[in-house]
Design a protein that fits this description.
This protein is mostly helical and 258 residues long. It is built from seven helices and no strands. Keywords: Membrane, Plasmid, Transmembrane, Transmembrane helix.
């Protein structure tokens, strides 16, 4: 059976496009917000009006795309992925477009299969987030330093400082970095808890084991929803071979059938 992931193609690809469009609009709006301060109305009224209009449109589009990402594309993708995960765990096609060989374990008992899938997901997620954080930290610290230098400069125009603050403390810069740090730490804890659960218990039918697996899964899914962070597909592709090998070694250590 060849590997396939229709969920990623049909639901996560549009989400990535929407998020990328939002990022582009954000930086466009940031540039235009500064341009509205630089272009003087008394010297070039028509250009000032054009910049103001473009800024207003970009802000409106950014608001609409951000709302659509949170309430439509992201929710739809995560819901389908959860249904796909449950379909694999219980060997029951809850949705028509289930993935093939996306989850790398063949445990016989549903809750054991679910625990193994959760362990694999959290392993990949925490490592990919760690890689993504390298860029986010550099960008956030750079933007924050520039803003701080502007704020401490008494000769700096306060309107420029204010515009820069709107950029730095926005959803796409500082907030995104903090949310990503929080999500990575949360996923790492869930990975450790799931690893310990599988390592310490082979009784996949016990009540405590089942309850813990469901608890950890809910913590993982609610964490992703609260953070609103999508994993980078390009980082995933680069790290996939090494992480797949690491997962195989981990599964072998824990006695998980893959």
């Amino acid at each position: 059976m060849s590997k396939s992931d229709p969920i990623g193609v049909e639901y996560y690809k549009p989400l990535q496009i929407a998020e990328k469009s939002g990022d582009i609009l954000f930086y466009l709006a940031a540039i235009l917000s500064v341009a509205t301060l630089v272009v003087e109305k008394d010297k070039s009224l028509e250009l000032n009006n054009l910049v103001q209009a473009l800024f207003a449109v970009s802000v409106l589009l950014l608001f609409l795309i951000g709302l659509a990402v949170r309430l439509h594309w992201s929710t739809r993708a995560q819901t389908k992925r959860m249904s796909d995960l449950m379909s694999h765990a219980f060997e029951l096609p809850l949705i028509p477009e289930t993935s093939k060989e996306y989850y790398n374990n063949v445990e016989s008992e549903p809750l054991k299969r679910l625990a193994a899938s959760l362990l694999e997901n959290t392993l990949f997620s925490k490592e990919i987030l760690q890689k993504m954080l390298t860029w986010e930290r550099v960008m956030s610290i750079t933007y924050g330093t520039i803003w701080l230098l502007l704020a401490l400069n008494r000769k700096a125009d306060l309107s420029i400082v204010s515009a820069a603050a709107q950029v730095v403390f926005s959803e796409q810069i500082l907030s995104k970095w903090v949310r990503m740090e929080w999500l990575r730490a949360r996923v790492e804890r869930i990975y450790d808890d799931t690893y310990s659960l599988i390592q310490s218990s082979n009784a996949g039918w016990s009540k405590e084991y089942r309850a813990r697996v469901i608890e950890y899964l809910l913590r993982y899914e609610t964490g992703k929803a609260q953070a609103g962070i999508s994993l980078s597909s390009s980082v995933f592709k680069k790290m996939n071979p090494a992480l797949s090998k690491r997962w195989a070694d981990t599964a072998n250590t824990l006695g998980i059938h893959v």
